[in-house]
Amino acid sequence: MANMALVEPVAQPQPFARPRAFTVGKRPGELNEDCWQNSHKGAGAVSDGASVSFDSAAWSRILARRYAQHPCFDDTWVAAAIAAYAELHDRDSLPWMQQAAFDRGSFASLLGVTDRGDRQVAILAIGDSLAVLCDGDRVVASFPYEAPEQFDANPQLLR
Questions:
Q1: Positive or negative CA dihedral for 113, 39, 108, 78?
Q2: How far apart are CA 110 and CA 108, in angstroms?
């Protein structure tokens, strides 16, 4: 036993081990239309509901929760999200002005991050929600936008 060296175990970083979110409405007293969600599957999502659309808070919750639980994105995934949203509202029972807003649609961004193992992640970005990689206080990269001017354009959102 004299030839054996003691090796201390090294803690491995856990993706999304202690998720935290801090969120505020755009103006005092307003509800926040944004949502975040993570899952034990190694996926997390942020969705920013567009204030000008009909019930964007519910739409962003559906998108973020669905991505965290089913971290893929294809036509079937989108169709299931739309079906889940449609179950929340009966258009014919809404007042006429809400029917018009409902007909215009609900809009939100979606930023999904999925742990691929071996210190790699996959990032899905639709809209203007950003993933930012930092090294200490230095920004290394951001996706999908890389420059502040890109926020001036109207983002493509999920409807």
A1: positive
A2: 7
Under 8 Å between Cβ of 111 and 131: yes
C-alpha gyration radius of the chain: 20
d(CA 48, CA 67): 14
CA gap 69, 137 in Å, rounded: 31
> What pTM does this model have?
0.80
Query: Would you list the domain boundaries of the chain?
Result: 34-128
| Cβ atoms 115, 16 nearer than 8 A | yes
3-class secondary-structure state, position 117: strand
More confident residue, 4 or 30: 30
Cis omega (within 30 of 0) on the bond before 144?
yes
